[in-house]
Amino acid sequence: MAAPSRIAGLASEPTLTSTVVDRIRNDILRGVLPPGEKLRLEHLAPRYAVGRTPLREACCRLASEGLVTIEDQRGFRVVPISRADLLDLTRTRQQLDTLALRGAMARGDISWEGEVTAALHRLLRRTPASSDGTLDDDWEAEHGRFHATLLGACDSPWLLKFCATLFDQSERYRRLAVSHGRHARDIEEEHTALVRATLARDAERACALLVEHIARTTELVLAAHPGLSVNEPVSESLPTKQRSASRKA
Amino acid sequence: MAAPSRIAGLASEPTLTSTVVDRIRNDILRGVLPPGEKLRLEHLAPRYAVGRTPLREACCRLASEGLVTIEDQRGFRVVPISRADLLDLTRTRQQLDTLALRGAMARGDISWEGEVTAALHRLLRRTPASSDGTLDDDWEAEHGRFHATLLGACDSPWLLKFCATLFDQSERYRRLAVSHGRHARDIEEEHTALVRATLARDAERACALLVEHIARTTELVLAAHPGLSVNEPVSESLPTKQRSASRKA
DNA sequence: GTTTGACATATTGCATCAAATCTCCGCGAT
DNA sequence: ATCGCGGAGATTTGATGCAATATGTCAAAC
After folding, report:
1. Residue B237 per-residue DSSP state
2. What number of H helices and E strands is found in chain A?
3. Residue A173 contacts by C-beta under 8 Å, 6 or more apart in sequence?
4. pLDDT band of B9, cuts 50, 70, 90
5. CATH, domain B16-78, list 3.90.1520.10, 1.10.10.10, 3.40.50.20, 3.40.50.150
6. How would you classify the pairing of strands B68-71 and B38-39?
7. Collapsing DSSP states into helix, strand and coil, what is residue B38?
8. Contact B153, B107 (CB under 8 A)
């Protein structure tokens, strides 16, 4: 758990709930808690070494980020993934990130340019993932910071918050593809070209590159998981098959 | 507002928490719980006739909608309002609602047109607010439904969710202006013209009208509350106890 | 006038109880 | 004989009360 919080960056968070929120979010994003997984508080309590009360509040807070669903009388569950959700996520992210990028390019000053350059530099200094499929936590953290910095000069907190939410959501899918293995992709070049167009204040080209960047990620995810139409495409190690719809009450 | 659930549309919500969430959201939107108000669970417990645990979870869920803030070791608080937030909200809503409206106009079918027409009809059948400043809950509910229906044909759940969040946020400001009184505004004509352009599939005109519609609301809010620069612009003058009249169950 | 200490209040977390759901097993019907 | 239906046990969730820690305030002392 490196630094997943791209929102408020306060130093003091002495409450158990806040720390558990970060740990569970990390586990969801990394796939340790697979999509669709039921979050039984009694089973999670020993895993995170906390009581049920902070766990309940942690799940509730994660629901605010769209990572957990709340079903009355049925507890919490990791939000399932689906092909339709991925496509919606991709299109919405293209639209909103484009808006935010235009705003950032219109208002960004010299110091912002420096931050973008620095973020790109740190990102290029690391390798995206090992060839064996294990992803590098440091690169993942830098990648998130890079995209956040790129849009950071946009002076719309609401839009940035939405973009951050969409980014986290997309992470769940992207890491599936990355961990799945081969991805012939020059992602360094994509990031570099994006920064080049951004610093040149070429809004049209930068937005086009960003749209392409997002689209390519989705293509790789779909290529890695062609059967991404059901709700539980991977993992779901539980052998219990629930019966078909025979629920009436 | 009697229809708070614009997300998952399940019928059964027998938990105390879910009902309290709706009641508190209603009170926040209506201004009964003013912006910046500290939410002391011990004081709210008798007011809503529930314990502190469901109240805690309710506040946590409202934080997911951006209506409540969580401060570690300092409890919950109604999100304050500010001029900057209103301006950001307005601009972001113009951008996102426009995107959603274009999507809805591109994909909406005949039945959607019927729903929009019906929603407009129901809205026109009611009066926005009494001349004395008291706002009509039925009109408010229909108004929310109208805007939701207008964008409803857009096939992007994420975008619609964001638009719904922004709408609720704007409601807190708009109702301030409405309850403040005087607003020489032909809002019926605005809605009617918006529907006319939408059904004519004139995307440019419809989006322009929608942008204007949102902008005018903000202008009225700013006109009604010129000193909207500090965090607690109105009310907040009753630190004692506000009347506990909303008790129904 | 500033600082420090103590009191009162509020928030956090845990243990326990009640209610609802899920699972599994048995029975009957086709 | 297999499939559908119903009920009892077990598990899980929802909610209350209580204990512990942290915060904010007020007053007294320097």
Report:
1. -
2. 9, 3
3. A81, A86, A89, A217, A218, A221
4. very low
5. 1.10.10.10
6. unpaired
7. strand
8. yes
| A226 CB and strand D closer than 7 A | no
A137 pLDDT above the threshold of 90: no
* Nearest C-alpha in A relative to B70: A61
Contact yes or no for A89/A214 (Cβ under 8 A): no
Average pLDDT (B69-89) is 93
| Range A135-162 average pLDDT | 94
Distance from CA of A165 to the nearest CA of B (A): 10
pLDDT at B124 over 80: yes
Give the C-alpha separation, A23 to B134, whole Å.
47
pLDDT at A23 > cutoff 60: yes
User: Which residues of A sit within 8 Å Cβ distance of B?
Assistant: 10, 12-15, 18, 53, 56-57, 60-61, 63-65, 69-73, 85, 88-89, 91-92, 95-96, 99, 155-159, 162, 166
Least confident of A48-57, A68-77, B4-13, B236-245: B236-245
Superfamily classification of domain B83-224? GntR ligand-binding domain-like (1.20.120.530)
- B138 Cβ partners below 8 Å, 6+ apart? B126
Tokens found for residue B83: 């001029």
pLDDT of residue A64: 87
CB atoms within 10 A of CB A165: 20
Residue B97 · residue B154 · CB < 8 Å: no
Tell me the pTM.
Answer: 0.86
Q: How far is the CA of A20 from the C1' of D20 (A)?
A: 20
pLDDT digits (tens, 9 = 90+) for A203-220: 999 999 999 999 999 999
Q: Is the CB of A68 under 7 A from strand D?
A: no
Per domain, the residue ranges of chain A are 16-78, 83-224
- The stretches of chain B forming alpha helices (DSSP H) are 16-30, 41-48, 52-64, 83-107, 110-124, 137-152, 157-180, 187-199, 203-224
pLDDT value of position B131: 62
Specify the long-range contacts of residues B113-118, CB closer than 8 Å, at least 24 apart. B113/B199, B115/B149, B115/B152, B116/B149, B116/B150, B116/B195, B116/B198, B116/B199, B117/B195, B117/B199
Q: Is the CB of A51 under 7 A from strand C?
A: yes
Side by side, the strands of the sheet bearing B75-78 are: B38-39, B75-78, B68-71
How far apart (Å, rounded) are the C-alpha atoms in residues A129 and A137? 9
Query: How far is residue A126's CA from residue B31's CA, in Å, rounded to a whole number?
Result: 51
Q: Which residue in B105, B93, B96 sits closest to B203, CA to CA?
A: B105
